[in-house]
Amino acid sequence: MKIAANTFVAIDYCLTLDSGEEIDRSQAGQPLTFITGTGQIIPGLEKALTGMRTGDTAKVTVEAADAYGPIREDLVHEVPKTHFPADADIQPGMAFQAEGPQGPFMIVVQTVTDQTVTVDLNHPMAGKRLHFDVTVQEVREPAADDLSAAADAGCGCGCGGDEADGCGCGSGDAEKKGGCGCR
């Protein structure tokens, strides 16, 4: 069976940046699973996987526009320092997870002054070209429990939007578990 619309897919992958830095990978024996067409992975990767079969391998490059989008200046905000706990030691580079109407998303501190904190709501991978080394482990029709799991997962790994659309909690282990790990 080939990967097509509304297909259950399990892949092993390694994700790197242009620099060769490894950003993420599936755990041994725990492939990333998703159903095509449900927005669970970034659009560029899903498109590249279309037509592949179990056992196929590929090196896929996904441009920023087909991954997490460009860096958006409208997602960088200066907020009063009073929005943070008085005893918090807020430092540039710190990341916080916040909850929005569409689910969790990441906030990264850019700068801190006596009065304000500049925060960035862009996905950490926004503006970046992504390189995937992929092995397709399974392709099949989705079972009823797969469909309910996909609905419960919300915006699983790499759902391809931006924080303005919601779903922006970043990356890491949550992605591998099918949760709202990316945006």
Largest sheet: 5 strands, antiparallel
Q: Which residues form runs of ≥5 with pLDDT under 50? A: 155-183
**Rough outline:** elongated
Tally of DSSP β-strands: 9
Mean pLDDT: 84
Quick recap of the structure?
The protein has 183 residues and is mostly beta strands. The chain has helices at residues 43-49, 144-153, 173-176; strands spanning 8-16, 22-25, 32-35, 57-62, 76-80, 95-100, 103-112, 116-120, 130-140.
What does this structure look like?
This protein is mainly beta and 183 residues long. It folds into two domains: 2-68 and 127-154, Chitinase A, domain 3; 73-120, Thrombin, subunit H. It has helices at 43-49, 144-153, 173-176; strands at residues 8-16, 22-25, 32-35, 57-62, 76-80, 95-100, 103-112, 116-120, 130-140. The model is unreliable at 155-183 (pLDDT under 50).
Key terms for this structure?
Thrombin, subunit H, Chitinase A, domain 3, four-stranded antiparallel sheet, five-stranded antiparallel sheet, disordered C terminus, elongated, mainly beta
